[in-house]
Amino acid sequence: MSRCLRDVAKLQKIIKNVQFEGCTVGFVPTMGALHEGHLAIVRQSKKENDFTVVSVYVNSRQFNNEEDFRKYPRTEEQDIKALKNEGVDVIYFPRTRALFSQEFMPLKFSLDGLDKRLEGASRPGHFQGVIEVVHALFLHVMPTRAYFGQKDFQQVLIVQKMISKLKLKVELVQVPTVRARNGLALSSRNSRLTLEQKEEALVLVRILRFVKEGYSKVPLSQLLTQAKAQMKGTALVLDYLDIVDKTTLIPLTSKQPQAVACIAAFCGEVRLIDNMLLIAE
Ligand code: AMP
Predict the structure, then answer these.
(1) DSSP labels for the chain?
(2) Bigger pLDDT: 106 or 112?
């Protein structure tokens, strides 16, 4: 039976008992407004662990835009229903004062530039907010494994960097992006798009597929120019499209056997991101 908890002491009592029994704990941090992408991660955690905790917390610290935070979809009742349906052991709604107590010290260590590129360049302070909340949640949940979606590719690298730098005893598991049948990457923010905008937003995945297709055949700069040209005439406004090294996120100057294409664009006032792995044939 699923339990909903808000109290960190109660959560930790349960987790300690579970760990005392020698069981593994899988952890899925989310900001709620759950969709099939989140649920795929939950299912993987359930498959790979004896006990699964899902947290739901909209972290104001990782929003660099007040309006975006205010308008972020919040669907608590539906989320609880969906998670109970999946048989999640604990649904955790942490309290802000428990995550960031008065003694809370901002984490200060280098992310080796990962936080400065792509999303970091467009959303200053975003990743500092991410690592602070993920670190605080790890202290609460004490998981064996933590699950993150490839949809937020840069976030995966940054959380992995934090785990290595702080020598945390948690294994990060990356889960592939779940897409709608038409290819649009599922995202909580999609619920803020009109039906027409959802159609328009397909240009993101179309561009990524174009880049993937051309990666082995077309010179890099030409490929990027042709890909960006596909944005013209659409209602979307491109923030960035880059082909980057998949471990450092530095834009490629020459082709590598593997890379990742990352894109961000505004559809109306909603900012969407997506990415795709590229493999040279
Ligand atoms: P969020 O609630 O947006 O913070 O996302 C919680 C987790 O779900 C993060 O690890 C995301 O990367 C992951 N996630 C979000 N959308 C998808 C998707 N379409 N496919 C797979 N994972 C996703």
Answers:
(1) --EEE--HHHHHHHHHHHHHTT--EEEEEE-S---HHHHHHHHHHHHH-SEEEEEE---GGG-S-HHHHHHS---HHHHHHHHHHTT-SEEE---HHHHS-TT--------TTTTTSTHHHHSTTHHHHHHHHHHHHHHHH--SEEEEEGGGHHHHHHHHHHHHHTT-S-EEEEEPPPB-TTSPBP-GGGGGS-HHHHHHTHHHHHHHHHHHHHTTTS-HHHHHHHHHHTTTTSSEEEEEEEEE-TTT-PBPSS--SEEEEEEEEEETTEEEEEEEEEE--
(2) 112
Answer whether 274 contacts ligand 1 (Cβ < 6 A): no
| pTM: predicted TM-score of the whole model, two decimal places | 0.97
Q: What domains sit in the chain, N to C, each tagged with a CATH number?
A: 3-175 (3.40.50.620), 188-273 (3.30.1300.10)
CB of 152 closer than 6 angstroms to any ligand 1 atom: yes
Tell how far the Cα of 187 is from the centroid of ligand 1, in angstroms.
Answer: 7
Ligand 1 neighbour 41 (Cβ under 6 A)? yes
pLDDT in tens, 83-104: 999 999 999 999 999 999 877 8
